[in-house]
Amino acid sequence: MRSALAIPGPWLGSYPERIVAGDEARDRQVWRALGTMLWTQRRAQHRGDGFVARVLAQGRKWESETDAALTEHALMLRRELSRHGLEEGLCARSFALVREVARRRLGLDAHPSQLLAGWAMLHGMVSEMETGEGKTLAISFAAATAALAHLRTHVITVNDYLVERDARELAPLYGALGLTSAAVTAGVRAPAERGERWRADVVYCSNKGLVFDYLRDRVSMGERRSALHRELDRLAGRQRPLLAGLEFGVVDEADSVLIDECRMPLVLSRDRAASYSADVFVTALELARRLTAGEHYLLPRAERRVEITDAGRAALAELGERLEELWRVARRREDLVRQALTALHLLKRDEHYLVRDGGVQIIDASTGRAMPDRSWELGLQQMVEVKEGCAPTGGKETIARITYQRFFSRYHRLGATTGTAREVAAELWRVYGLRVLRAPRHRPNRNEPLGTTICASEERHCAALVASVSELQRRRQPVLLATRTVAASERLSGALSRAGLPHVVLNARSEAAEAAIVAQAGEAGRITIATNMAGRGTDIKLGEGVQSLGGLRVIVTECNEAARLDRQLFGRAGRQGDPGSHECVLSLDDELLRAHAPAWLRARVADLVVGRPRLGGVLAEWLFRVVRARLELRAARQRRLALLEDRRIGDALSFSGPME
């Protein structure tokens, strides 16, 4: 039986998407349970290897063809794919054609691992490719083949920098195949222009931009979502939806998009009058500052929440009696003060948010990037703005919401790739029905692991980093120093400046200079400090003579919440067979340890690190692993709860229509 995607795109409807009803969802769970027993990496690898052999054999026949002949082949192949769908033989011919065109137009000769990865993505799997193995080109095989079959294809990645870079680099390839391509970024604001770009054959976009445009379509269509209604709207000249449906999607950096960013739903909102005046937020902050930690409120830091005690409630009741009537209502008073305490003690400037252009912008913890279009809810955004001396923004009214889990399940077919999927393979299968296929390395790995160094205090940590960077600078070997937060990157920058070490900083403040900083990070003698912005998709090319110096050195200076993030950072070195090295230099004063490990235990391990370095180092690494495991379990629980809540709300509102 052919898959649904074997049918040419136009037959999927005017706005194709898969809406999973309750019975179908249960059926899919049964099939996934059976798939768990029947699927094996070896069987899938064997099928993929056979496909790759067919591609290579076909490709040899086209090496002597002229460019005009290849263009004619593309036109013929497009007609056959439209007629017969994504049949294996036609897909092999398409891959061979794309490979030959890429060699001529891009100067890139795709290796078998990239062909295997493209095959996996086209067949609805996650291809795990080691960092630096060429995921961008591998994606183009699946994307171009689906587009030749008249399936509108979305290539989804984590930020606009990668969107623009990949779309620009691959545009000549798609153009030579007779396909249109476009990039949709936050800078494209006019609805008409965004809609025009979304109607290209292959569209590169960010996950957030894609989902928010989808929600805008759902809101604009309202109840007029049937094919008949959309056709009548088109004939009447009404505004067309931005997207053209969800036919085929390829997610780059899949673990970031499909896992790390799934703890909270995406909410489309519109401005409304603020619930409270700025004076109310000022008063709430003043009351919060008059309370005493441990007596009036508790901060279970591992849970990142505020708990007001009975003594705190009594103190607030007494303080509220001297204020206007708003503050005499217990629940309202306590809610406002709880948000004020959260703003004061749990949300830190340059870690959780930036102050820029007179406003507060949230920082995405997993990518290190500012998110100017996102805001906290229930007055917390305004509370932080008043805390920082900014004018409070207006209130927000939710008009649509959806989780990533539910959204990406609506594609008729979804493929993905990343360098770090094995740790979350079970969740990718359980939630999205995506299997992980590991593609073998094309070249030997020359990225040398140098181990982990544990420092007993922040002062020793800073001194160790400065000493390491000084030695690398003396040898002219480029180094990338990875930090978790903007604040940490700027503290480290200050230490290097005091030591007379010239460097550049890449963080949420310097996003505009990202391309230039990345382009120079592999030059001899270059010192780059970067947050997790540099951890995904960043291709740092080595400068002249740097290979003989040992390539790029990556030093992770803070503990990330998931080991996958460290592996992504390590992968900035040793790409495409180049030499490189990586290490961790961590402190027992690390923010995550302070929040999740008892002070007495950290102090005891610190004593051992100083007095008995070997034993202390082993215990310290164990402590970091335990804390990280707890954080990963908590994140998984948050994602599961977000999905369950999403389903609960959907069921509750099913009688009145979809909630988005």
* Proportion of residues in helical segments: 40-55%
The overall pLDDT, averaged over residues, is 87
Pairing-aware structural class of the strands and helices? Answer: alpha/beta
Shape: globular
Low-pLDDT parts are 1-5, 7-11
This entry's quaternary arrangement is single chain
Radius of gyration: 27 Å
Q: Mind describing the biggest β-sheet?
A: 7 strands, parallel
Q: For the terminal residues, how far apart are their CA atoms?
A: 33 Å
User: Number of helical segments?
Assistant: 24
Beta-strand portion reads 5-15%
Sequence of strands across the biggest β-sheet: 3-4-2-5-13-1-14
Number of strands: 20
Structure write-up:
By secondary structure, the chain is an alpha/beta fold. The strands form five sheets. Strands 3-4-2-5-13-1-14 form a seven-stranded parallel β-sheet, sandwiched between helices. A hairpin with an 8-residue loop joins strand 7 and strand 8 (307-308). The protein is globular, with a radius of gyration of 27 Å. The two termini are 33 Å apart. Mean pLDDT is 87; it is low at 1-5 and 7-11.
What keywords describe this structure?
single chain; 660 residues; alpha/beta; six-stranded parallel beta sheet; 24 helices; 20 strands; disordered N terminus
Summarize the structure.
The chain is an alpha/beta fold and 660 residues long.
